[in-house]
Amino acid sequence: MRAGRLILAPLLGLVAFVGLWELAVRALDIQPFILLAPSRIVEELGDRPAFYAGEMGVTARHAGIGMLIGLVVALVVGAALAASRLAEQAAQPVLILILVAPWVAYFTSIVVWLGPGDPPTYFLVAFVTLPAFVFATVVGLRSADPAAREVLASVDARAAEVLWRLRLPSAMPTIFATARFSVGLALAAAYYAEGGNFADRGLGAAGRRAAGVQNGPILWATVAGTVLLGMAGLVIITVVERVALRWHVSQRRAVTAVSWRAHRRSVS
Amino acid sequence: MPAAIELSGVSKSFGPVEALAPVDLCVERGEIVTILGPSGSGKTTVLRLVAGLERPTDGTVLVDGDPPATARAAKRVGFVPQTPALLPWRTVAANARLLLDVNRGDGARRDHHADPDELLAEVGLMPFRRSYPHELSGGMQQRVSLVRAMVLGSPLLLMDEPFASLDEITRADMRHLLTRLCEPRATTVLFVTHSIPEAVFLSDRVAVLSARPGRIVGIEPVPLPRPRRPELEDDPAFFAIETRLRALLHAGAGR
């Protein structure tokens, strides 16, 4: 039942949104290049499913791996910054800079540096998702239970042990929450990079080509493809979060060992 | 043989605030000593100084004749904080053995440690070995916290008002449990509390602190027979000691 509600409610929201969109395009007779009706987008996707599936796979790879790289680097940087308030404050402007610098300004330089294709794409995705993950890591590491830290200090636990056993797991909830927000950013960066990395793979490249010849259907099909990837990404993160954070208060309702059976019966 | 804990002229200030006025206290091996005092009297500070979590502004703290850091490194100190502070992502059994897992490569202490499962059975938590902390009540979590500290088999236990957040009935059960655990093992215990019955039931001696800045108003011996049984709390001798402690507390509060 809970799983059903989980899927049903968002689905209904989506259907309502798409319905209004279709209505608007038909009623107001909007030009295809400005906004395409959902029915036409579905038609376009259905005309060449293998092509779009392939390009979606490429974009998914770019966004997914790029985000993972960003996360891993952020964990290392975050751990270093969490140790020193001075370092953290010194790093703040740099992280904000990364967040707000427009990609179009420096991406060509990245391509010149790293060559065409995948490397600059992974770099951009990792680069733009880095600041949010660093903030999340620092906050998360600092949120470790101070009493638990003292218990570990009472046996002289080394800093690495405290980090691994206490502080990193404590940071998981914040990091997962940030991952949710970062999916959209990672996909946007992947889409943008694919349009400018001189390789011809990915939704971004197909979209750029379509925009160049004012082909509305293909352009909007790539947009739809990116949206589908985003939703899939969120579902994946939610599922992983449910498993990885099953101990966390956000993933459960209050239940004691004694009332578990009664609780199960009441919610089924 | 050096005393288990020796505090000589120890005082502690946090910036301009003097939390602890100079304090002298000696705890012998196998003794159970309680520090009793009102809120803000610096009793937790004393404990943290012994645990080496703070450094004294003045005076010396010795644990078994060594600085606290040495005792900590040798895992000779079992610390029970005010909140259970269990790791929510670990089961009860995994939490119980946490301190054994930490610094595992460091050889030394492992032979003296107790069996986590045995201790869990003693505190009545074996059916909950695979449960997670959020599935336990506050009293049950504190019991795991106790087991976690005792698993080290360390000769010294430091306990910071561990039963403060529990209701009266559970508190009474917990102090009876604690004596059952500590008496046969002859552990040295330094226990901090603001509860008079707790202080009398558990201890061999009670050190009463005044209000801030805390200084020792008096050290009251508790010559009641061991092993301490729950029925002792109805004994007139028990009540007499409680009365004397109450008087000392009032004196310390300046009333």
Which terms would index this structure?
A: 268 residues; mainly alpha; globular; B: 255 residues; alpha/beta; 6-stranded mixed beta sheet; 3-stranded antiparallel beta sheet; 9 helices; 34% helix
If you had to describe this structure to a student in words, what would you say it looks like?
The complex is a heterodimer of chains A (268) and B (255). Chain A has 268 residues and is mostly helical. Chain A has helices spanning 2-28, 38-47, 49-82, 85-100, 103-114, 118-142, 146-153, 159-196, 203-212, 216-244, 260-267. Chain B has 9 helices and 9 strands. In chain B, helix 7 links the parallel strand 6 (156-160) and strand 7. In chain B, helix 8 crosses helix 9. The model of chain B has no long low-confidence stretch (mean pLDDT 89). Chain A binds chain B through residues 145, 147-148, 150-158, 161, 165-166, 169, 247-249, 252, 254-257, 260, and chain B through 51, 53, 69, 72-73, 75, 77-79, 81-83, 85-89, 98-99, 101-103, 128, 131-137, 148-149, 152, 158.
Blueprint of the fold:
The complex is a heterodimer of chains A (268) and B (255).
Chain A: H1 2-28, H2 38-47, H3 49-82, H4 85-100, H5 103-114, H6 118-142, H7 146-153, H8 159-196, H9 203-212, H10 216-244, H11 260-267
Chain B: E1 5-14, E2 17-27, E3 32-36, H1 43-51, E4 58-63, H2 68-73, E5 77-80, H3 92-96, H4 98-101, H5 116-122, H6 138-150, E6 156-160, H7 168-185, E7 188-193, H8 196-202, E8 205-209, E9 216-221, H9 236-252
Parallel strand pairs in B: 3-7, 3-8, 5-6, 6-7
Antiparallel strand pairs in B: 1-2, 1-4, 8-9
Class per helix and strand makeup of chain A = mainly alpha
Question: Number of helical runs of chain B?
Answer: 9
What class would the helix/strand composition of chain B place it in?
alpha/beta
Q: Strand share of the residues of chain A?
A: under 5%
- Calculate the mean pLDDT score of chain A and round it: 89
Order of helices and strands of chain B: EEEHEHEHHHHEHEHEEH
Q: What value does the average pLDDT of chain B take? A: 89
Are there runs of chain A of 5+ residues with pLDDT below 50, and where? none
Uncertain ranges of chain B: none
Number of strands of chain B: 9
Distance between the first and last residues' Cα of chain B: 40 Å
Oligomer: heterodimer
Task: Describe the largest sheet of chain A.
Answer: none
